[in-house]
Give the backbone structure.
Amino acid sequence: MNKDNVYKFIIFSVIAFLAIYLISFCFCYNPHSWYDEGIYLHISRILEEYHIFGIQLGQNQFAPLNLITVGYPVFLPVATVFHFFGVGIAQARGVAIAFMILFLGIVYLYSSKYLGKFSAIASILLLLSFSPFYGNGRNVLGEIPGMFFLMMGVYFFEIFLEKKSKFKLIFAALFFSITMSTKPTFLIIGPILFFLLVIYLAKKKIKLNHFVIFFVSLIPPLVFWVITQFGGFTNIFKIFNHYANPYGLSDVIPVILNNIVRFFTESTPIHFLFLFLVVFIGIIVEFGKKKNLRFSTAFLFLFIGLMLLSY
């Protein structure tokens, strides 16, 4: 092993140790468990014990998960861990920790392949500096699992564009579909994917059969989500309306104005805005050099932008 490889190995090892330490530090009680996580642990326990996606109201009485904003991609892994290792906060958050590590892993893998080792390391360090990564990651919630599945979809789609492998295309579609099944917030990627693939089809970067295969492959995980979450398609549009405005606000303008102010007065929105500007500058530089944007760049920028508008 030459000197350069030794230095790279040392740097990688230090960052890996730092990541694992920061992610797992006091994970059982930092942050404290709260209402949403308690419900998700209950659903996972019911799934493990009764093999039912539901909330127990009484003996042999279960309510559907109509208004629950996390889906089977979170409940199934936690229920599996409960089955083999028992029910507990440590076991459940062990799954959350695993998703955080997997997310960092796929970010590093993608970044090192398409952006270079330095960018990969910088990306990991930026993520480790972002406090919501821990606040939303250590709890059993849907954000980090969803981001892991999303990055897996992006990574496989990029490989498909290089090799035109239908298997990679199907894998990409399945991961994107599982992302949307993880949390309704991620349903926004459906229109983004349709928009970008129509452009790619028009520019002849993909063929019509690729377009059809991709969107057909999206269907099975989403159908499974609808069945396990809602028990079918009966009231799905009514439920989506609830997701769109869960607090029943009649006037959203004050909320929008208040959230805009938070980008200049609170640390987390300010940090997010800073990272978004870094991404935006990177996109300008990439477009200036290549006069073209990589699929993943365009997709992630549209995703972040729409999420920002949603906030």
Summary: Residues 3-243 form one domain. The mean pLDDT is 86. The radius of gyration is 21 Å. The CA atoms of residues 153 and 172 lie 4 Å apart.
